[in-house]
Amino acid sequence: MALGARAFALGIGVSLCGLFPPAASAPAGIETVYSVLPSQADPAVAQFNDPNVVIIGKNVTEGAQLAVFLPGTGGRPMNVMPLLRVIAGQGYRVIGLEYDDEPAVVQVCPRDPDLACSADFREERVFGGKDGAAVQNPPQETIVQRLVALLRYLDRQYPSDKWKQYLAGDEPDWSKIVVSGLSQGAGMAAYIAKRRAVARAVLFSSPWDFSGRARQLAPWLAWPSATPPERWFAEYHRREKTADLIAQAYGVLRIPPDHVQVFDLDLPDGMGGGSGNPYHGSTVHMEGYIPQWQILYGHSP
């Protein structure tokens, strides 16, 4: 795509720092967008190399929390720019993170009799080092290592923005990070929140990990959580095909009922055509949900 087309897609009044030589820091008083290829942040990344999106809002504070959004299977961070902008408007710095997202958990584990399949699958994708998992990815392509590499890259390029504050050695400083996502990405966010104490978890229409024809929910959903229940928030669309399983999973995750939003807007003309589950992805694309998005993310302290 030509530069002019990319600039138009991102909107007027946005600093497109990822498309130009790096500046010392994000300009104050305007929304700043960085577009960073994963292979820019870490040349060892060889696949799933669509751009990460980084947004610093107009009035973000120096110590703002970081909100990380993980797209669904086959998704791209750039595809949810309206949502990412709303999150930035809530006072967060925002990263839409590209990651190894194919195949999906639900394409592999429902037919595997091993009830640990989905936990092992997500462990490998998020943290790596899980021998025998149904998928394997290079260590540098785990979600954690992609995020660490991106934060280090941003800190090198824009040191005045203080991206280093979101790192704790070789891991992200999860206490300062909101994890969120759609579908498979929401499942990855939930898995992280189970294993690490994050600032907040926001789940769009997932997880619903299950096994077998009886659709038995995966045991990891009931594991003790490093993130306390009051920091979990979630939604699903009443008419998506797996709404019943998602609602059950949220209960097993012990998300407080008043932290779960049930979306129910009709689809606009042209949205979801050809999809077998059109309401599923609509929840991160329809701007009629902006008030609900704001509730789910709250404001950065």
Please tell me the total number of domains.
Answer: 1
| Share of helix, binned | 25-40%
Q: Evaluate the radius of gyration.
A: 18 Å
What characterizes the major β-sheet?
Answer: 9 strands, mixed
Mean pLDDT over all positions: 89
CATH superfamily grouping: Alpha/Beta hydrolase fold, catalytic domain
Name given to the CATH architecture: 3-Layer(aba) Sandwich
* Record field, number of beta strands: 13
As a percent range, the share of strand residues is: 15-25%
Strand order in the largest sheet:
1-2-3-5-4-8-9-12-13
Structural class: alpha/beta
What is the string of SSEs from the N terminus onward?
HEEHEEHEHHHEEEHEEEEHEHH
End-to-end separation in angstroms reads 38 Å
Report the total helices. 10
| CATH structural fold name | Rossmann fold
* Shape, per Cα inertia axes: globular
| Contiguous runs where pLDDT drops below 50 for at least 5 residues | 1-24
Kindly provide the name of the CATH class: Alpha Beta
Q: What is the topological layout?
A:
Elements: H1 3-10, E1 14-16, E2 31-36, H2 38-41, E3 52-56, E4 66-70, H3 81-89, E5 93-96, H4 105-108, H5 117-126, H6 143-157, E6 167-168, E7 171-172, E8 177-182, H7 184-195, E9 200-204, E10 210-211, E11 216-217, E12 232-237, H8 243-252, E13 260-263, H9 278-282, H10 290-297
Parallel strand pairs: 1-2, 4-5, 4-8, 8-9, 9-12, 12-13
Antiparallel strand pairs: 2-3, 3-5, 6-7, 10-11
Helix pairs in contact: 5-7
Task: Give an overview in words.
With 301 residues, this protein is an alpha/beta fold. The protein has a single domain (3-297), classed as Rossmann fold (3-Layer(aba) Sandwich). The chain is built from ten helices and 13 strands. The chain has helices at 3-10, 38-41, 81-89, 105-108, 117-126, 143-157, 184-195, 243-252, 278-282, 290-297, and strands at 14-16, 31-36, 52-56, 66-70, 93-96, 167-168, 171-172, 177-182, 200-204, 210-211, 216-217, 232-237, 260-263. The strands form three sheets. Strands 1-2-3-5-4-8-9-12-13 form a nine-stranded mixed β-sheet, with helices on both faces. Strands 6-7 form a two-stranded antiparallel sheet. Strands 10-11 form a two-stranded antiparallel sheet. Strand 12 (232-237), helix 8 (243-252) and strand 13 form a beta-alpha-beta unit. Helix 5 (117-126) crosses helix 7 (184-195). The radius of gyration is 18 Å and the shape is globular. The model is unreliable at 1-24 (pLDDT under 50).
